Amino acid sequence: MKTFKKVIIPVTASALLLGACGNSATDSKEDTIISSKAGDVKVEDVMNKMGDEQVANTSFSILLNKLLADKYKDKIDTKDIDKEVEKEQKQYGGKDQFESMLKQQKMSLSDYKEQKKLQSYQKALLNDKVDISDKEIKESTKKGSHILIKVKENKDDKEGLSDKDAKAKAEKIQKQVSENPDKFGEIAKKESMDKSSAKKDGSLGYVIKGQMEKDFEKALFKLKEGDVSKVVKTDYGYHIIKADKENDFDKEKGKLKSQLIQQKVQKSPKLLTDAYKELLDEYKVDYKDRDIKKAIEDSILDPDKIKQQQQQQQQQQAMQQGGAGMTSGQ
């Protein structure tokens, strides 16, 4: 299934670089951050040392946090965030272990909660700016379950079966569930080699178009509620798929909308950059420095640059996965 770099910069400098209103666009570089008998440290010194793009990323991150918090603080329930964090703490073995993990990332629990808040604010911004109807959510999602019989990836794979045996077993199971669709969950729990979904009677929850392999997705979206597919082959093995009742759609559609928005933004970063630009205009943001303004416009607010960065990240991930495959194959 299918950020800004965190760089420490004095708050004084960030406030000088990006203000709510200002005078000339070049004076800020001459402002002093620290003075001493040996000489002063000016904004220009910091910028030259760090580079315009790093300063721009950090400054914009600080600014964005302030703007979003001001706009959405009354719309985000911090109690819900606290509950989410408590749930995550349990998953990681308790509060102490969770905080220890955060320390390794040089982050405190309060920092983490602030980060979660910012993510909620960003979701709220995109929910406001990207229009998705209930009809589109309904057409783009489907609730389903599956039973997977894996095919061996290689001769050392002890879990999967040969292609012939996997297909034969899947066809036998498909016949069982077709005759007894009400027992799909029971059979999935016993037979499915997808351990994660098997624990939940084979449930995958809501699947969004574009998340799964094409053949799997095509089969699922063709099914009516309660229907079971024929055996479907993917790179993972052989699947028997069931379309589940969507009686919780109204409860889940908010989450599904957020996921669809994220998917849209990945395909078209202009949705995100336009949302940022409208927010900056709304708050009458005035850049104190031309170089920083240019760096922000050429990186953070340039959809083509974001798309390019996404492609580079995907290439790096593909190379890493390929390297891991070569290593395991030796």
Cα shape: elongated
Mean pLDDT: 84
In total, how many beta strands? 8
List low-pLDDT spans.
Answer: 1-27, 324-330
> What spatial order of strands do you see in the largest sheet?
5-4-7-6
Provide the structure class: alpha+beta
GO molecular function: peptidyl-prolyl cis-trans isomerase activity
Protein name: peptidylprolyl isomerase
InterPro entries: PPIase_dom_sf, PPIase_PpiC, PrsA_foldase, Trigger_fact/SurA_dom_sf
EC number: 5.2.1.8
Give a brief description.
By secondary structure, the chain is α+β, with helices and mostly antiparallel strands. It contains 15 helices and 8 strands. 59% of the residues lie in helices and 11% in strands.
Task: Describe what you observe in this structure.
With 330 residues, the protein is α+β, with helices and mostly antiparallel strands. It has two domains: 50-128 and 267-305, no CATH class; 133-246, Chitinase A, domain 3, CATH 3.10.50. The protein has helices at 11-17, 43-50, 52-72, 78-91, 95-104, 109-129, 134-140, 163-179, 184-191, 195-198, 214-222, 249-267, 270-282, 290-298, 303-329, and strands at residues 18-19, 32-34, 41-42, 141-150, 203-208, 232-234, 237-243, 286-287. The chain has a four-stranded antiparallel beta sheet, with helices on both faces. Strands 1-8 form a two-stranded antiparallel ribbon. A two-stranded antiparallel sheet has the order 2-3. β2 and β3 form a beta hairpin. α4 packs across α5 (95-104). It starts with 10 loop residues before the first helix and ends with a helix. Pfam families: Rotamase (PF00639). Residues 308-321 have a biased composition (Low complexity).
